[in-house]
Structures are given as structure tokens and as C-alpha cells.
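Researcher: We plan to redesign the surface later, but first we want a full-length starting point. C-alpha cells attached.
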């Protein structure tokens, strides 16, 4: 591929950043409106339900990861079978949460009907994961950006409409269900399968999905379980304060998310992996440092902007939430780096850190907002350090195309273009086989 491909991927990165920015803007608007309309006590309950959505949403993310990887390695003919797998997974996730609704209701002090509404909305939200993967695996980043906006508009915009119609949590959840269903229909139009529909999943894809889902479930449980634990351990007011702090953490976590999405097809390709890893890691770390410093300088302004005077007591704890989200952003990139190789052990260390965090909060650090968020920071730092150790060979100088290095393939001089353009100028990921790279199960 010629070097002209570089600017195209950089433009795709800009579109992804814009698409995720719109999606995150909806997320922040939802939290701002809900925190003000519902008040600290009910907003704490609402945040708990959103935590369930985010943890369950890993099914969609795993479908995206497997679909993108399979399209990169097997080509677009695999798409219909992967969509068939998506339908099965969506049903299982929605049905599973519906069965568990009474247990969640009792643990989180919620109405079981509200949990059932969340379960119903997870069916269309899981289905769209395969559509994301179709666009990402073929490096159609513009279409992927549009998909992010469509799904955010449907789910989050629908919730906002529901809250506007009636200022209750149930109304917001009904709006989310309707909006997510409409978004799934639109997503199928934007990223259709180019081959005949198949009812048989791609051979080995279910096994690969299980690996990705296990790793991502552990990771997103890790990044959201603190809100549930705070709801369980703290009183209603303090849990509401923690829920608002978690909004800051999510902002720091999701702000650089487009970098991992853009880098993923390159991380699948061993010839581009080293450079992509180094550049992406540097950008994510820099983003986290700036956001944490910014919140430390103006914590009161951040609290007032997001939640208003009712949450003023959160005060100086805000930078800790930004730090936790930033560390998790680094950890997320490193987890995806392992999934790009099809590493069946990708989720083991995540699960270990998750268990450690739950035990720490349940048994020791549970008497205040700072105690819980400091435990979260420690867990995120531990996972990030473990990921860096695993990637030490990839990150070493001379592995792949990196900053200031000259690429000797396709006549692309590495020193003359931006680092990401140099990476993108390599042949698209997936059409080559590397004997040292783990291959998906067949």
C-alpha cells in the first residue's frame, strides 16, 4: 500500500475522535441531567443501573473485537456467520440479566421492573457490536464513527427524552429501550453484510468470542464495580457523591478511547504492532496526565459543572477519580493489545485484580468515598503495570515501525511522516499469517 493511505487513516482517526466525542457528550449530558433531575439518592440508583449496562455491554464489545479480527484475517465472507453469532449472544445476555433481575434488585435496593427494562435494552445494544466490528475490521473508520454517533443518539438520547417526558428513572429506562432498538435498525443499514446471510457461526468464532468476552467482562466489571460497591457500602447521599465522581473517572477513561479503536487493526498485524503500541500508549498516557492535572487545578468547578451545589462535598476527591479513569485507559489499551493476538490468557490478570478490588472494598476500604476511590486507583495501577510487563518486548525499540524509524516496505520513509501515518502506510492488518502469533481457533 502506498503512503497515501496514511492520511486516510489519520482522517479516519479524526472522525473516530469526533464520533466518540459526540457519544461521550451524550453520556455527560445524560449524567448532568439525571443528577439534577433525580437528586443524589435516586441518581445513585440510576448510576448503579448504568453500571449494569456497561458491564453487560462487554458482549457487544467482544463481538466487535472478534468480528474486526476475523474480517482482518478471513475477509468479508466471514461477516454473515459473525452476525449469526451476534444474534445468539444478544439473546443470551438479555435473557440472563432478566433471570438475575430479582437478585440485582435485592442487592442494589432497586425495582425489579427497572432491571428488566435494562435487560431488554441490552438485546439491541449487543447486536450493534457486530456492526461496529464490520466497519472496524475493514478499516472503514468513517462509517464506524457514524455508528458510534447513531448508537449514542439512540440509547443516551432516548434516555434524555424519557427523563424530559417524566422525571423518573423508569421513564428514562423506557426511553433508552426505544432509542437502542431504533439505533440497531439504523446500524444494520450503515454496516450491512456484503454476502448472503448465514445461520451458522464462523468456525472457532464462538470460542474466540468467549475469550474476548471473558477478558472484557472482567475489565469492565473492574471499571464499574466500584459504583455498585459504593452503593452497597455507603449511605444514599455518599453513594450519590461517589456516582458523580465516577462520571469524572469515565470521562478520563473514554476521552482517549478512539486511540485504541484506531490502533486495533494495526495491533493485529505483527509488522505494525510495535510502533502502534508505542505511539498509542504515549498518547493515552499524555491524555490522562493532562486530565488529572486539570481536575486537580479546578476541582470545585468540575463538580459544579457536572452536578451542581448538591455535590459540593465531593470537592478535593475529584482528581483521584480522574487518575483512576486515566490509569484504566492505559490498562484498556494493553488488554486490547493481547486480544489482538488472540491470547487466551488475556483476561486472567484482569480477573485477579477484580477479585482483589472487591475483597479490599468489602473487607477494608469501605468507610468513605476517598477510601474506595484510592483502592480503585491502586487496582488500575496494578493492572497497567502488569500489562506493560507483558508487552515489554513489543515496546522495545526496534519492534515494528516506530517513531523516527525508516520503514523499508512499500517505500514509506518513516521519518518523513507523522507516526500514525507511517504505521497506517503499511499493508492493512490481517491478510498475512505470522507463525509466532497466536491464531484464532478454527
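Model: Full-length starting sequence:
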Amino acid at each position: 500500500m502506498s503512503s497515501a493511505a496514511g492520511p486516510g487513516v489519520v482522517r479516519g482517526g479524526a472522525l473516530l475522535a469526533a464520533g466518540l466525542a459526540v457519544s461521550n457528550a451524550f453520556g455527560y449530558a445524560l449524567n448532568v441531567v439525571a443528577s439534577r433531575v433525580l437528586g443524589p439518592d435516586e441518581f445513585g440508583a440510576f448510576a448503579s443501573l448504568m453500571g449494569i449496562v456497561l458491564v453487560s455491554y462487554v458482549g457487544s464489545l467482544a463481538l466487535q473485537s472478534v468480528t474486526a479480527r476475523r474480517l482482518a484475517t478471513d475477509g468479508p465472507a466471514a461477516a454473515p456467520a459473525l452476525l449469526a453469532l451476534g444474534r445468539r449472544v444478544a439473546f443470551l445476555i438479555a435473557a440472563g440479566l432478566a433471570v438475575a433481575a430479582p437478585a440485582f434488585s435485592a442487592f442494589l435496593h432497586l425495582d425489579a421492573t427497572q432491571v428488566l427494562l435494562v435487560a431488554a435494552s441490552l438485546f439491541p445494544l449487543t447486536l450493534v457490536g457486530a456492526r461496529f466490528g464490520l466497519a472496524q475490521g475493514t478499516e472503514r473508520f468513517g462509517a464506524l464513527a457514524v455508528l458510534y454517533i447513531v448508537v449514542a443518539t439512540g440509547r443516551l438520547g432516548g434516555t434524555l427524552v424519557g427523563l424530559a417526558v417524566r422525571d423518573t428513572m423508569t421513564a428514562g429506562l423506557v426511553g433508552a429501550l426505544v432509542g437502542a432498538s431504533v439505533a440497531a435498525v439504523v446500524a444494520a443499514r450503515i454496516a450491512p453484510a456484503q454476502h448472503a446471510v448465514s445461520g451458522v457461526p464462523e468456525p472457532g468464532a464462538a470460542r474466540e468470542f468467549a475469550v474476548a468476552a471473558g477478558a472484557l467482562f472482567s475489565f469492565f466489571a473492574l471499571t464499574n464495580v466500584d459504583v455498585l460497591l459504593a452503593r452497597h457500602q455507603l449511605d444514599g447521599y455518599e453513594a450519590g457523591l461517589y456516582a458523580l465522581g465516577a462520571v469524572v473517572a469515565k470521562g478520563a477513561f473514554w476521552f482517549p478511547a478512539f486511540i485504541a479503536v484506531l490502533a486495533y487493526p494495526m495491533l493485529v498485524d505483527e509488522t505494525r504492532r510495535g510502533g502502534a503500541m508505542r505511539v498509542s500508549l504515549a498518547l493515552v498516557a499524555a491524555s490522562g496526565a493532562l486530565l488529572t492535572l486539570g481536575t486537580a487545578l479546578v476541582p470545585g468547578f468540575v463538580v459544579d459543572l457536572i452536578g451542581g451545589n448538591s455535590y459540593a462535598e465531593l470537592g478535593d476527591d475529584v482528581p483521584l477519580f480522574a487518575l483512576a479513569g486515566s490509569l484504566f485507559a492505559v490498562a484498556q489499551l494493553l488488554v486490547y493489545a493481547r486480544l489482538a493476538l488472540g491470547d487466551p490468557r488475556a483476561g486472567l490478570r484482569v480477573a485477579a485484580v477484580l477479585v482483589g478490588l472487591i475483597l479490599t472494598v468489602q473487607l477494608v476500604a469501605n468507610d468513605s468515598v476517598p477510601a474506595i476511590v484510592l483502592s480503585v486507583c491502586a487496582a488500575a495501577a496494578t493492572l497497567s503495570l502488569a500489562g506493560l510487563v507483558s508487552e515489554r518486548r513489543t515496546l522495545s525499540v526496534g519492534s515494528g515501525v516506530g517513531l523516527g524509524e525508516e520503514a523499508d516496505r512499500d517505500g514509506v520513509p518513516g521519518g518523513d511522516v507523522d507516526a500514525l501515518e507511517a504505521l497506517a502506510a503499511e499493508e492493512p492488518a490481517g491478510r498475512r499469517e505470522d507463525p509466532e502469533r497466536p491464531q484464532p481457533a478454527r
